[in-house]
Every structure is written in structure tokens, then in C-alpha cells.
Amino acid sequence: GLSLVEILLVVSIMGMITTVAVPLYSQLVTASHYSTVTNTASSLASAVKNAQLYCIARGRSGLDAGNSGEPYSNIDFNDNCFPSDTQGSNDLTFSGGNGSLRCARIWEAMLMSGPSVHTGGGNGGILNGNGYTNWEYISVTDDGRCNYTYTGDPLLDSGILYDAVLGSVTAYDGAGVLTGNTGNSGNSGNSGNSAN
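Above: the chain sequence. Below: its structure as C-alpha cells.
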């Protein structure tokens, strides 16, 4: 058998390993969630930029959805040539009662096979102690912008902001600090990336 000293030695070694491993594992999980949000923001920014270029090339500024069969035929473009809806709303702001729904429709049109999004109301998502289990992002409007809150780890309070006036797509982290800006700058065709 094992002596008391050997058992205490094993227990103390396991305690030291746990002291190091658990925080490290937690940091890795957090980094993985932030990476998910940042990569999704980058995909959304690319899709918005491609849609803007299509809008400029086709002269679709301020127009509702185009002819079926064309690329971006289901997108309504605002006066700045950025996606603003898919069902006949091409104004610059997302105010009013349907703002979250408009944001969700833009998300789904831009990221056709991307992460799932829900408007946060109704019966579509199952809310439990850990967030909406059926949806990866919850869409709400925030000061006239689309705010897609990540539900993978609700404690992080991270997500993506889309501003249809500027065409900017920005990921944010749990402290509200911007972690990256993959935004477009008007119709100039510029796309800047910066990180803290």
C-alpha cells in the first residue's frame, strides 16, 4: 500500500498542477471565444465590402432589392451603398420596432452559411442560465447600429457592431474595449484593420 506521506505528496502535486492548469485552460477557452467573434466580424466586414462594391458598380445606392438571379439581389442598399435590410428598408438607421429583425436579416444575407443569429425575442431561442442555446449571436439595435452579441460565453459580453452609415464592422470584448476594426470608410474603398 501507500504510506500517508506518499498520498499527501501525490495530493499536493495534483493541487499544484490544478492551480496552474485551470487558469490556463480558462484563458485558452476565453481566447478561443474572442477568436470566434473576431473571425466572424472579419467575415461580415468582407461581405459588407463586397456588397458595397457591387452596389457602386451597379448604381444601386438607395435602392431596394434588385432582380432575382443577380448577386446580392435580396439586399436593400442605403444611400451610402451599405446593406440596410432585405425587405424594402433602405434608410440609414435601424430605429423603430423592427431594428433587431432588420439586423438579423442583414446578418443572414451577408453570412449565408455563417453562425446563427436571433432577434432575442419570441420563441426562437431557448434561454437558460448560459444564454440562448440555439443561437450563436443575438441581434439588437444599439444607437442606430446592429449589435450582434455572442452567446458562446455570456460572461465575456463580446460581440460585433455593424454601422450601416459608415459600413464599419467592429468586434468588441467583455470590457467593451474595441479589439479590432475591420470597418469600411464611406464609398472610398478603404478598409482598415487595427488592433489594441
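DSSP finds two helices and twelve strands in the chain.
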